[in-house]
Hints:
Strands 1-2 form a two-stranded antiparallel ribbon. The chain has 12 helices and 2 strands. The protein has 2 domains: 56-187, Cytochrome Bc1 Complex, Chain D, domain 2; 196-333, Cytochrome Bc1 Complex, Chain D, domain 2.
Amino acid sequence: MKNRYPILIVVIFIYLFAMVGGLLPKEKAAEAYRLTIPLGLDEFSPQIPKDNPLTNEKVELGRLLFFDKRISIDERVSCASCHNPKLAFTDSQPVSSGFQGQKGKRNTPTIINRLFSSGQFWDGRADSLEEQVKAPLINPVEMANPSHEGVVGRLKKIPGYPPLFKTAFGTEAVTMDHIAKAIASFERTVVSGNSPFDRFETGGDKKALSESAWRGLKVFRGKGQCHLCHTGFNLTDELYHNLGAGWAESEKDRDLGRYAVTRKEEDKGKFKTPTLREIEKTGPYMHDGSLRTLEEVIDFYDRGGNKNPNLDFEMRPLKLTPQEKRDLLEFLRSLSGAGWQKIMPPARFPE
């Protein structure tokens, strides 16, 4: 009995020394995700919140949740149902379909290069990807969950998920904020660059564009005035404009766009400028999916859009020739790049 306490003190000392010296096994820390920025994109412009840095574990958890249909009320709809990787993360429909085949009112925008954007949705009502993720979950037309708590409760009952939240966030607590942060992290890895246009413009390869596409670039920046809104490396000003697309005669049938968020009269009929990257693969076009092809889009702009009281000043007839239209189309096709194609659905999901 006399030697008991000295021995105990020695054991405690050795344990503490081992902890300080790193001799005992420690919980593995989340690893920073190595974000690959393709040629043509600005590596200094990603919109990543300070409280949600990219990690490998978080991105992988987000990928699982993005494709998992169990996050919808009937377990038949996932994020990928509308943002299908085989369709450049769109659904190729005029407007999106969700719970029990219900139709939404707006076209599904691609999530490609949302890494570089803060405001989300056609009307910009979400200030971040994290906030955007939360909305479809409880939209009665989309995933139709009665509450975010219901989504959380359903995932908690799947034994395989809490440990993945532990590796991603340091706690097995499944929360709506953690769900949103994981899915947003995955979405930020979906990028497109290194297109023929990028190789021509940034890489200096003068043979990357065909003669027709090169002439189309001159139309894009000149007579077509496309660059006024589709500007910068991501070919969008991230602002809101009234083009008259889908403008209904009856106000009760009219989608007022940005006005629903700001309540400013001048914002009626304004919608966000989408990126033109991968534009050849992301039709139908406009917020209502009313234009099926790029040829129709070019004709729409050529006639100056649809007249209405709030039509943007820049919207006026362009008077493009048939050849200029063909060249502009070839340039738009040159904006198809690489980066997003490697993303695949999970082989299996947590059980």
